[in-house]
Amino acid sequence: MTISLHALSILSTFLVLVNIPQQSHAAWTATDVHAVRGLILSSATYDRLIRPSENINVNVSLSLLTINFLDVKTQTLSSTGWLTAEWEDKRLTWNAGTYPDVTHVYALDTEIWRPELFIDNSLADVSILDDDNVMFKITRDGVVEWKLPRIFTTFCNVDVTYYPFDTQTCVVEITSWAYSQDEISLNVTRNSVNTEDIKPHGEWTIISSSAEEKTLQETKENGVIETFAQIDFYIKMQRKSNYYISSVLLPVLLTSYLNNFVFILPVDSGEKVGFILTVLLALAVLLTLVSDSIPSTSINTSILSVYLAVTLCLGVVCCLLTVLVIKIYFKDPDTDITPRWRLLHDKVLAPLSCWTGCPCQCSREKTVAPSDNNNEMVVMNAEDENTETKSEQNCSNELKWTHLANVMDHFFLVVMFVITTISSITFMVALAAGGELNE
């Protein structure tokens, strides 16, 4: 009898230990979720066409995964990410004591109410944001979370003034379409765009982002102004300019200096006109290539396009000057040089170009003779002013059209080289400095 009582005691203790977990913990079951969904989504108590309250606060945030491309010519930004919206619907709550392990359930777009959101500056899909395959997460306190993945193709006002050192600010505009601001208020969840998971892009780098709450006003035919809530997500991107420095700027700079080498070619070679026309053709091709990558607008003018246009104009001037030099070079050698050309040579061409060849000199050379005492070189000046004046007159009388053409070639080489250098430095500094200030 004692052994039986002892065995019963052990058996009862074992049963108590086995039953304790079952009584203190109720596991999650699909039956409970089904019961919760039937409770909150009952057609008798819930109508998806009626908003939950008089005014609903919808918290919106934007997260980006990739920047696909920014087409500068069509001013189109393509990006991939998802839009997160949260709001509270008191009709979608259940008792935590009845279903303690069901913290949230999911519903489809056809089952619950949702705000009608619209991308105001969309270019690809001008429609209400929706997706029948995306589920809504509903918590037991009635908070609904909607994460909508999407490729955002939006308009971006591109400023190409400092191309290729430009910085662009694009915006994604989210607007409440059907409900006015008195019915739905759009609030930003965070003050910037979420870029934690973004992949690096080969051409653009995101340097900053921001979010701003705005309003959109619409005037009806009867004069009544209706206000809608709007959120603008700003994305500031900087172009990676290393590729453009080697493929655009460097060829433009080198080609611009090719204009000057036409004045080094001898006139007798017969290649001066052909050379300058080839350079002009190369500049025209570069100008066309750069213009094709820049939007056709007069709002913003690219400094690089202006520089190419100036370089093209300098090339045309070099071509005209080359024709002038060739014409002077092949004048009848028996024809005397007119006083105007002689004055231009003596006062402008020879002094400014520092031409040192006879018969035109930038400065009179000094006579040098060795010293008998210490084998050093000493400078011997002209005997008197009359001898120097006579030498200058003889030099001037010996001036021929061929010599004048050579002096003009040298003068134009110096002048165009200085102009090209000054214009190149000015435009390149303006591009680099403007890009830094814009950033």
What is the CATH top level name of the largest domain?
A: Mainly Beta
Strand order of the largest sheet: 3-5-6-2-1-8
Q: Kindly give the count of domains.
A: 2
Unreliable segments of 5+ consecutive residues? 10-25, 358-394
What proportion strand?
A: 25-35%
- CATH superfamily assignment of the largest domain? Neurotransmitter-gated ion-channel ligand-binding domain
Count of helical segments?
8
State the main characteristics.
single chain, 439 residues, alpha+beta, Acetylcholine Binding Protein, Chain: A, 2 domains, four-stranded antiparallel beta sheet, 8 helices
Tell me about this structure:
By secondary structure, the protein is α+β, with helices and mostly antiparallel strands. The protein folds into two domains: 211 residues, Acetylcholine Binding Protein, Chain: A; 171 residues, no CATH class. The chain is 38% helix and 26% strand. The protein has eight helices and twelve strands. A six-stranded mixed β-sheet has the order 3-5-6-2-1-8, covered by helices on one side. It has a four-stranded antiparallel β-sheet with strand order 4-7-10-9, with no helix packed on it. Strand 1 and strand 2 form a beta hairpin. Helix 3 packs antiparallel against helix 4, helix 4 runs antiparallel to helix 5 and helix 6 crosses helix 8. The longest helix has 38 residues. It is rod-shaped, with a radius of gyration of 42 Å. About 12% of the residues have low confidence.
